Amino acid sequence: MEKEKLWTKDFISITAINFFLMLTFYLLMVTISVFAAEQFGANESNAGLASSIFVIGALFGRVFGGKLINTIGRKKILLLGIFIMILSSIIYFIPGNLSLLMANRVLHGFGFGVAGTATGTIVAQVIPNSRKGEGIGYFALSMTLATAIGPFIGIYILDHFQFNAIFVFCIICIAVSLVLSILIKVQEIQLTEEQLNEMKGFKLSNFIERKSVPITLVATVTAFCYSGVLSFLTFYAKENHVTEAAGFFFVVYAAAVLITRPFTGRQFDLKGPNFVMYPAIIGLLFALFILSQSDTGLVLLIAGAFLGFGYATYMSSSQAVAISSAPAHRVGLATSTFFILTDIGLGVGPFIQGLFVPFVGYSGLYMILGVCAILCLPLHHFLYGKNAPKGNE
Fold it and tell me: 143, 162, 189 — which closes off a domain?
């Protein structure tokens, strides 16, 4: 039987939109704290808050987008989020103070959350059901590449140009996304009267897709583990005198994803989610335990490779499962549910883990996170794995 076509114009366009939006996110995450410190004299705490407060806006954006995406329309929600991001990028040029910067970061995050919910919903619509795992995997790859490229571009611009060049670059990226969003064809879902009535009010079910929660809870724990790498890798590398290798950590991470994604995506669809999700969890726990013993650059980079296979594979696979679990008219809610909970895992992780660092050190922290990853094996089994489908083979 001939395979259904995956690489359509709309799939390529929505994946490119996601890449450019994610690129601006990661680029600003590593540079905006420096901007806050140098422009407004912010201390380390406030400079860090200027970076992370973005996530609060994104959470509200995802809640808003998930609830209204089918009533307002998927394409309109996408365009609304992108327009908010363009407005926010322009506000960065306005002379002000730290309070204005903080408020604008929340606004930028809100637009990002709205647009991100739309891209995640639209891509689920344009991917054939028989290639859902493979398609979501490639779509998630756009985020992985942005994770590696965004910080590199941000630091390069910071070293060679003025801050305004960063904001100009962001506007260009978002403008490209806007053009692609206008051209993309989106088939809107027509809700029945019963479905419209179901979506009214402020019930929890109007903000969270219940069927997507079990697998998303496991993904949230893996995101919690990954947040320790994002937040403390630089400090750990300095402590172990492997800072040069740390600069290539996420490059190796991205390379591992690029190499493994074609295989894992296809096997997800052919042999079922468990075939790739259990090994992905094992890859994550290997990465964390190897990282805890990274006293040389080579060992650190090996940990990065395992992390690229383990964490990135599990996250893209769990996103595909979360979306597939929901009825067609609630895919938007499933997408926002997935990102709301995993963003919480990424957001609260550094705060909780930071409380342990003075007592166990960074090596001890990664050992503890490795144990958390081990717990994901039975958690995945009982919440999803024992009833997972077998695949299309």
Answer: 189
Same domain, yes or no: 161 and 280: no
Q: What is the pLDDT along the chain (393 residues), one digit of tens a residue?
A: 457 788 889 889 999 999 999 898 888 876 777 778 787 787 766 776 777 778 788 888 888 887 777 778 888 999 999 999 999 999 988 877 888 988 998 999 999 989 988 898 888 788 887 787 788 878 888 887 887 787 778 777 877 888 889 899 999 999 999 999 999 887 766 656 665 565 565 565 666 788 899 999 999 999 999 888 877 787 788 888 888 888 788 889 888 988 988 888 888 888 889 999 999 999 999 999 999 998 898 999 999 999 999 998 999 899 888 888 887 777 778 878 888 888 888 777 777 888 888 888 889 999 999 999 999 999 999 999 888 887 665
Euclidean distance between CA atoms 58 and 53, whole angstroms? 9
Q: In residues, how long is the chain?
A: 393
- The candidate with the shortest Cα–Cα distance to 9, out of 144, 148, 180, is 180
Q: CB of 184 within 8 A of CB of 122?
A: yes
Q: Is residue 194 part of a domain?
A: no
CA distances from 94 to 21, 51, 88, 167 (A): 22, 18, 10, 11
User: Is 357 part of any domain?
Assistant: yes
Residues 182, 78 contacting (CB under 8 angstroms): no
Residue 124 CA: distances (Å) to CA of 132, 244, 387: 8, 39, 22
Residue corresponding to tokens 């993904």: 219
Q: What is the gyration radius of the CA atoms in the chain, in angstroms?
A: 20
Helical H segments across the chain, by residue range: 9-40, 44-52, 54-72, 74-91, 98-126, 132-160, 163-183, 193-198, 213-239, 243-246, 249-271, 273-291, 297-324, 331-383
Residue 197 lies in a domain: no
- Domain extent at residue 145: 1-189
Please name the residue that has the structure tokens 């611009």.
157
Cα distance between residue 355 and residue 118, in whole Å? 36
CA dist., res. 376 & res. 379, Å (int): 5
Q: How many CB atoms lie within 10 A of CB 129?
A: 11
The number of folded domains in the chain is 2
